Amino acid sequence: MKPSKTPTPDPEAAEQLKKWTGIAPLERFVFPPGLDGRNGKYRCEEPCRVTVQTDLEAIEQWIHHDTESLATIKGRRSAAEKLLNWSVFQMKKPVSSLERYELDEFARFLLAPIPYATWVTRLSPERSSSDWRPFRGPLSIPSLYATMAHVASLASWMRLQRYADLLVGSYWDDRNYRIAGSASKAQRSQVRESAEPITLDEWVWVRRAMAEMDERPDGLRGRLVVELLYYGGLFVQELIELDEADVEQPSRVCPCWYLNVCGRSNARGGSMFFLPPPLAQTLEAWLKAKQKTVGRRLFVELGLSKDGASLVGCTADEALRHARAVLRLASRKALDAGKTSVGRLLQERTVPSFRLAFERHCRRAPEDYQAWKLTSNLGYQTDLLGAMNLTYKRRSLWDWSLAEHLWAPLP
Known about the structure:
Keywords: DNA recombination. This is Tyr recombinase domain-containing protein. By secondary structure, the chain is mostly helical. The chain has 17 helices and three strands.
C-alpha cells in the first residue's frame, strides 16, 4: 500500500480564506465597510493615548495589557471574539458605537446564541478554518459573568485610554467576580482613588470648563447635570428620575429654591434638597429655556401632568457623558495652563467624584464641627455645651455663608 500523500494547500482557497468577511477569530477578522470603528459614535474627541485606529487594534492591545497570564489572555480573547463578531454581524455596528442597553442585550445573547447554526459548533475546528465559531454552546451562568466582566474591563480600558466612551452596567464589573484577569489589588486601589471627591483646586477648573461649555448648544444641560451631582450629592439614577413637578420655587415659607428627591435618606440630607444660589440660577435658566416654570402643586392643580415631565430630559448614559465631557475639558484646560498635577488628577476622575465633594469643600472648622456633633441633629444639648464653654447656633437650611467661596468670581 502506498503511503498517503499530504494534500497540498490550494493557494486560491487560502487567499479567499484571508479575505473571509464572515464570523472569524481576531487574527482573521475583516471588517465590512464602515464598521471598523474609525468613526464610532462614542469615539473620544481628544487624542487617544495609544496608537490604534480601529476597534480590532484597540481590542488586541487590551488583551495583552498589564498581564502575562495565559489564562487571562485566553479569557479576554474569547470574550472579545464573541463581542466583536456579535456587534459587527448581528448588530451591524462597530463596538465603539454600542449603547449601554445593547451590551445588556449581548449578555442575553450569550445565554442563547441564535441562530444556532450561525454561532455554535460542537466540533473543535482549527482557528484557520472557515468552520470556526465563537461558541461551543450557550454559556453557563458563571461563564456569562466571567465574559461580561471581561467586557466591562475592555470598556474601562477604552475610556482610560481615551479611545471610546463605552458604558457597561456596574453589575458586570470584574471586581465583583473571581475570574482570571480580574482587577489586582493595586488596580482596585486606583479605582477607589478615582472615586474620591474632587479637590477645591480641581473644582476651580471644573467651573472654568462649565463656563466654556455654556457656549455650546447643550452646555446648559451639562452644567445642570454637574451641579446637581456636585451640590446635591445625587446619584445619577436620582438625577434622571427628577420631574419638573419636583421643583419648588421660593415662597414666603421658604425663601429659596428646593427639590423633592424621592427616597433620599435622612443620612444624605433627606428628601428636601435646598439649592445653593448657583444651582438655583442654573435651574431657573433651564426651566425658562424649556418654558416650564410652574411648581409642583400648581403643576398638578392645573392638570398638566400627573407626575410631571423629566427635569433634565436625558438618560443615565447621556448624563454620564455630560459629566465626563466636563471632566475631560477641565483636565485639558488645567494641563494647558501648566497645572500638571491637577490636570492629571482630573484625567483619572470618574463621575462619582462629584458626590460628597461639596460637603467637604464647605465643612466647618474642626472645633466648630465638634460643637455641631455634640448638639446632634435632634436638638441642643445646652447643659453639656455650657459645661464645656462651647456655644453653637444652628444655621438655617438655606444659609450658604460657609460655601460662598465655591462660586466666587473666578480670577
